[in-house]
C-alpha cells in the first residue's frame, strides 16, 4: 500500500476500509518525521471529507495515533507542535493521547492557559458564555455500544443516529471490553438477546461488572428474555456493589425491556448521560493540575449532583465555582465545588482504583460511625471524583474548616512574633478542649471491632522493615543494643492485636478538622481498616510531640519528659511541676493536654480489647522508630521516645 492510498483509505466513507488500512502494517518501522507528516496528511484528508461527521473524523485520527508504534518524546513533541494548526476537534484528540508533560505544547499558542493549582476556576454555563462549536475543541461522549449481532440493530442504529448519538455495534465480549478500554466516549450500552445466548451465567455476571466499573454515568438497556440468566434484582446488586454506591441503583441507570427495539421514550436516558459527560465542552475551565479527563469528570459530577437535587433545573443553568485546596501527600487533588443551588462540597480527584478502595473501606468500616461526610463517588474511564460534605469554618461560611496543624502552628507563631494577649490565651484554652475531643473521638472509633468476614488488607500498622534494611547496610541510628532488643520485643507484642480494631489509619494533624469546641471531624479514610487498637491514638500523641511541640532544653530533658508521660503515667499537673520551662510555650501546653488525653484514652481502648499499658508502650516505641525515617518529623524527639521506653520494654523478656 502506498502512502497516498493509506491516507485515502483512512479518510474513506467506509469504516471497514479505514479499519483495514489501520491493521495493514503500513505504519511499522516508520521514522518520526515520516509519521508526523503522515498524521498531518490524514488530518487534511479527513477535514476535506464532509460526509464524515467531526465525531467520526476525530475517532479515525484517535485510532491512527494509538496504532503508531513510536512512543519517543521527540515524536510526541513534534506531533504536539504540528497539532497547533489542526482544527479544534483534531487538536483535542492529539491532546488526549500524548503524555501529560507535553500536552501544553498543543496549546502553546494561547488557546488554553494552564493555571497554578491554587487558583480558582469558574466553570461558566453555556447560557452565560457562548462559544463557537466549531472552535470549541469539543470531544463527544455520545457513543452507544450495541452489544448484539449486527443484523438485529438496523432500526436501533437509525434511531440513535437520528437522535445525534453515535452507535457502535460489537458482537463479542472481547470487542466490547476493548472499546471500553480504549474509548472514553461511551455513555450507554444496549445488550441484546443475540449475545446473551452465547454467555453462561458467570460470563453475564462479569459483563455487568465490567460495565459497572467503566463509568458511573453509563446507562444500560437489557433485553429481558429467558436467555438473561441473571435476574434484574441481581444485576442491580452487582452494579451497586461494583460502583460502591451505598444507595439503590437509579431506575434510569439500568432498565429491562422485553423487546430489542429501543423506544423513542428511552432516548432521554441516553441523552441525559451524554449531556452530563459533555457538560465540560460548554464551559470555560482552567485545567491547573488536572488532566483533561479529570476536569471533564469533575464538571459532569457537579452537574449530576445539581440535577439530582434539582431535577427541574436546565443543564448548565447554574455556574460552578471550583477552588483548589492544599492537599496531603497521596497525589490526590482536593477542590471545593459550589454549584449555586446546592451546598458547597469537597471533591477528591484521584484514580478510579484508589477511589474504589476508599469507598469500600468507608462503606464497610466507617459509614455507621460517621454519617456526616456522606461520600459519593463518580467515575469515568480511569478517573474518579469523591464528593464529601464540606466541614465549614463556621455556620455561615462556605470556607472549609482549618486543619488542626494550622491552628497549632498559628498559636506558636502568635506567641513568637507578637506580644502576649488575651486572645492568645483563649485560643490555647480552645485548642486544649479541642485536642481532648480529638482523643475521645478516636477512642470511640478504635473501640469498634472490624467485621469478621471482611477481606480488607491492613496498611496502617507501623512497619520497621525499611529501617531494618538500612540497619543491615550499616546505617548508624545512634541507638544502643538495648533499643534494638526492645524493637524485636515490641514487634512481637504488637502482633498479638494487629487486626483487633477499626482504625482510621492515617492520623496526622492535616486530617483533623476543628469546628467549635465540640465538633471534631476526621477526613481521608483511604487507609482505614482493621488494625491495632492503639495505633491511631499513639499516632495522634506523637503527631503532637514530633510536630508542633517546641523544646528548648537538653535532649536528656526530652527523655525524662517522655518517661514521665509514658512509664510513670504522670498527670498533667505533675508534668507542669517537673518541666516548667516546657510549659512556658502556649503550643506546648495545648499539646501536653492532647498527649495526656491520648495516653489515657488509649489505655481505656486497650482494656476493651484485652490489652494493657504494655501494648501502649510497644506501639509507641514502634511508631517513634518509624518516624526516624519520615521527613518532617523531629528526629531528636523520636529518639527521646525510643530511649525513654527502651529499657522498660527490654526488661519484659528478662521479667
Shape call:
elongated
- Mean pLDDT over the residues: 84
**Structural class of the helices, strands and pairings?**
alpha/beta
Share of residues in strands: 5-15%
Helix content: 40-55%
- Main sheet? 6 strands, antiparallel
How far apart the termini lie comes to 85 Å
Question: Radius of gyration, Cα only, in angstroms?
Answer: 30 Å
Number of helical segments with 4 or more residues: 25
Please give the CATH class of the largest domain. Answer: Alpha Beta
What is the CATH topology classification name of the largest domain?
Aminoglycoside 3'-phosphotransferase, Chain: A, domain 2
Instruction: List the strand order in the largest sheet.
Output: 1-7-8-9-11-10
The strand count comes to 15
Q: Please, how many domains? A: 4
Low-confidence stretches: 109-139
CATH architecture grouping of the largest domain: Alpha-Beta Complex
Helix and strand arrangement:
Elements: H1 3-10, H2 15-22, H3 32-48, H4 54-67, H5 73-83, H6 88-97, H7 100-103, E1 120-123, E2 143-147, H8 154-162, E3 166-170, H9 173-182, E4 186-191, H10 193-196, H11 201-214, E5 219-223, H12 232-242, E6 254-257, H13 267-277, H14 292-309, E7 320-325, E8 333-338, E9 345-351, H15 352-366, E10 376-380, E11 383-389, H16 404-417, H17 422-446, H18 465-472, H19 481-494, E12 501-503, E13 512-515, E14 519-522, E15 529-531, H20 535-545, H21 555-566, H22 572-578, H23 586-608, H24 613-627, H25 635-654
Helix pairs in contact: 1-3, 3-4, 3-5, 4-6, 9-11, 11-12, 16-17, 17-23, 19-24, 19-25, 20-23, 20-24, 21-25, 24-25
Amino acid at each position: 500500500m502506498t502512502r497516498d492510498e493509506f491516507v485515502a483509505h483512512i479518510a474513506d466513507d467506509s469504516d471497514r476500509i479505514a479499519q483495514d488500512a489501520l491493521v495493514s502494517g503500513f505504519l511499522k518501522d516508520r521514522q518520526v518525521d515520516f509519521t508526523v507528516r503522515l498524521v498531518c496528511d490524514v488530518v487534511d484528508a479527513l477535514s476535506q471529507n464532509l460526509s464524515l461527521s467531526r465525531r467520526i473524523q476525530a475517532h479515525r485520527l484517535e485510532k491512527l495515533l494509538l496504532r503508531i508504534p513510536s512512543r519517543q518524546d521527540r515524536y510526541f513533541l513534534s506531533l504536539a507542535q504540528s497539532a497547533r494548526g489542526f482544527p479544534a476537534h483534531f487538536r483535542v484528540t492529539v491532546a488526549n493521547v500524548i503524555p501529560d508533560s507535553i500536552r501544553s505544547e498543543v496549546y502553546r499558542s494561547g488557546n488554553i492557559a494552564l493555571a497554578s493549582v491554587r487558583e480558582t476556576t469558574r466553570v461558566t454555563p453555556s447560557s452565560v458564555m457562548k462559544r463557537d462549536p466549531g472552535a470549541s475543541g469539543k470531544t463527544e461522549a455520545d457513543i452507544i455500544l450495541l452489544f448484539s449481532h449486527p443484523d438485529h440493530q438496523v432500526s436501533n442504529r437509525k434511531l440513535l443516529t437520528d437522535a445525534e448519538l453515535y452507535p457502535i455495534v460489537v458482537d463479542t465480549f472481547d470487542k466490547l471490553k476493548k472499546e471500553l478500554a480504549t474509548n472514553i466516549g461511551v455513555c450507554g450500552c444496549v445488550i441484546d438477546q443475540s449475545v446473551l445466548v452465547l454467555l453462561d451465567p458467570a460470563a453475564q455476571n462479569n459483563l455487568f461488572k465490567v460495565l459497572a466499573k467503566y463509568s458511573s454515568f453509563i446507562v444500560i438497556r437489557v433485553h429481558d428474555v429467558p436467555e438473561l440468566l441473571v435476574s434484574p434484582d441481581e444485576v442491580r446488586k452487582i452494579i451497586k456493589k461494583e460502583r460502591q454506591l451505598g444507595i439503590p441503583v437509579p431506575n434510569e441507570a439500568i432498565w429491562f425491556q422485553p423487546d430489542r427495539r429501543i423506544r423513542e421514550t428511552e432516548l432521554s436516558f441516553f441523552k441525559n448521560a451524554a449531556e452530563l459527560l459533555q457538560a465540560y465542552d460548554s464551559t470555560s475551565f482552567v485545567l491547573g493540575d488536572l488532566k483533561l479527563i479529570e476536569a471533564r469528570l469533575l464538571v459532569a459530577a457537579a452537574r449530576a449532583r445539581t440535577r439530582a437535587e434539582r431535577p427541574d433545573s436546565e443543564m448548565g443553568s447554574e455556574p460552578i465555582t471550583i477552588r483548589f485546596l492544599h492537599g496531603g501527600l497521596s497525589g490526590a487533588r482536593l477542590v471545593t465545588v459550589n454549584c449555586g443551588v446546592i451546598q458547597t462540597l469537597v471533591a477528591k480527584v484521584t484514580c478510579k482504583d484508589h477511589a474504589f478502595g476508599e469507598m469500600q473501606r468507608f462503606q464497610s468500616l466507617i459509614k455507621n460511625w460517621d454519617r456526616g461526610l456522606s461520600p459519593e463517588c463518580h467515575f469515568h474511564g480511569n478517573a474518579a471524583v469523591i464528593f464529601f460534605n464540606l466541614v465549614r469554618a463556621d455556620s455561615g461560611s462556605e470556607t472549609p474548616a482549618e486543619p488542626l496543624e494550622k491552628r497549632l502552628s498559628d498559636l506558636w507563631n502568635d506567641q513568637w512574633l507578637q506580644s502576649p494577649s488575651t486572645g492568645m490565651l483563649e485560643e490555647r484554652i480552645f485548642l486544649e478542649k479541642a485536642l481532648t475531643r480529638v482523643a475521645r473521638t478516636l477512642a470511640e472509633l478504635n473501640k469498634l471491632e472490624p467485621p469478621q468476614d471482611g477481606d480488607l488488607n491492613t496498611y496502617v500498622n507501623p512497619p520497621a522493615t525499611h529501617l531494618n534494611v538500612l540497619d543491615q547496610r550499616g546505617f548508624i541510628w545512634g541507638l544502643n543494643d538495648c533499643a534494638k532488643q526492645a524493637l524485636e520485643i515490641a514487634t512481637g507484642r504488637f502482633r498479638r492485636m494487629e487486626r483487633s480494631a477499626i482504625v482510621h489509619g492515617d492520623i496526622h494533624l492535616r486530617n483533623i478538622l476543628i469546628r467549635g469546641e465540640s465538633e471534631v471531624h476526621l477526613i481521608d479514610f483511604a487507609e482505614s481498616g482493621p488494625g491495632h487498637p492503639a495505633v491511631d491514638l499513639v499516632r495522634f500523641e506523637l503527631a503532637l510531640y514530633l510536630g508542633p511541640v517546641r523544646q528548648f532544653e537538653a535532649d536528656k530533658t526530652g527523655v525524662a519528659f517522655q518517661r514521665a508521660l509514658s512509664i510513670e503515667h504522670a498527670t498533667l499537673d505533675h508534668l507542669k511541676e517537673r518541666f516548667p520551662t516546657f510549659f512556658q510555650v502556649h503550643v506546648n501546653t495545648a499539646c501536653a493536654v492532647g498527649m495526656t488525653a491520648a495516653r489515657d484514652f488509649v489505655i481505656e481502648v486497650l482494656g476493651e480489647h484485652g490489652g494493657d499499658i504494655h501494648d501502649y508502650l510497644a506501639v509507641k516505641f514502634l511508631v517513634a522508630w518509624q518516624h526516624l525515617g519520615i521527613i518532617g518529623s523531629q528526629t531528636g524527639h523520636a529518639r527521646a521516645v525510643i530511649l525513654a521506653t527502651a529499657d522498660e520494654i527490654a526488661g519484659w523478656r528478662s521479667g
